[in-house]
Structures are given as C-alpha cells and as structure tokens.
Amino acid sequence: MQTATVTGYSLKHVVCEHCTARFRYSVMRQAQGDHVGFAPPVVDLLTGGAFSKSGKAKAEAVAQGKLATALERAVDLVACPKCGKFQAHMIRAKRFKLFKIATLIALLSPWPTLMLTIMILPKGRAHEFAQLLQIELGVVAAIVALVALFLAFRFRPDVGRFFPFSSKHAGKGELDESDTKPQA
Ligand SMILES: [Zn+2]
Fold this sequence. Notes:
Blueprint: E1 2-15, E2 22-35, H1 41-47, H2 50-73, H3 88-108, H4 110-120, H5 126-154, E3 174-175
Antiparallel strand pairs: 1-2, 2-3
C-alpha cells in the first residue's frame, strides 16, 4: 500500500457581519491518501519501479482530492481585524467540532469498563451483562452529551471565553483594502 500526505493553503474572504469590513485569512490543512495496489517485486524489477511509482501517484491524487475538499470547507476562528469580533459561522464550526469530539469519546470510552465487566461477570450470565452494558452505554452517552452541551454554550470567543479552545488557536486576519480590485 502506498500512502501520501499533502499540505495546502487557501485564502478565505470574509465580509464581517458586525462592521461589514472585508478581510481575508489563510487556512492550512493536511490530507492523507492511500492506494492499495499489489506489486510483486518481480513486477517492479521488470518495469523499473514503474508500478510502485504509479501507486504513489495514485495515493497522491487521492490525498490532493481530500485536501481540496478540506480546504474548501475549512473555517478557522479569526477575529475581524477591524472590530475584533468573530463571525457566527466560525463559532458554529468550533461548536460542531466539540460535538464531533464528544461523539467519539462516547463511542470509545465504554470499552475499557466493558472488558472489565466481561472479566468480573461469571460465565453464562449474558442477560445481566447485556443489561449492565445498556445502562453503561446510556450513562456514558448522557454524561458526554451534557459536557459537550455545557462546553458549547460556554464557548463564546466574542466575550473572551475561548475554553475549551484557546485564544492561541484564533488566527489572524488581514483587511482587504482593495475591495474592487481583482484578487491576486
Ligand atoms: Zn468587523
């Protein structure tokens, strides 16, 4: 299998919803691609490595495709350089990220205790086990959802409340002075 990692930048243009200033900021994203191709050593020997090279190129093409999508959708937390406020869609994107992380935690966290439960429970008590599992999954999901909701509400960068993110994560924007001129 061939893998490739690519990095790219894109300029995002924003019209501030608070003060109507036009500004831009740069986003950086990374993407990985892989290509599963079977090349016995003899094939590479006969083709001078062409088969492996084409696999690498395909992996890179996959990575480039993912990168393009990621860059197109990319939203960073960037304060308006004129009024210092954040756009609603930037805050939404960060809150959405919180819920994504919460979902991941909720899906992964029951497994260690689940393994423990399997070890503790005597054999042949599958029914009790299933009940315990349901309760545990429910409790974990509820706790994680509550924590995520709480954090999402608390996250208000406009009043300086960046937690659970940091103000260091906020990018810098530059005012577009040349509104009417075409962008280089
Ligand atoms: Zn503004």
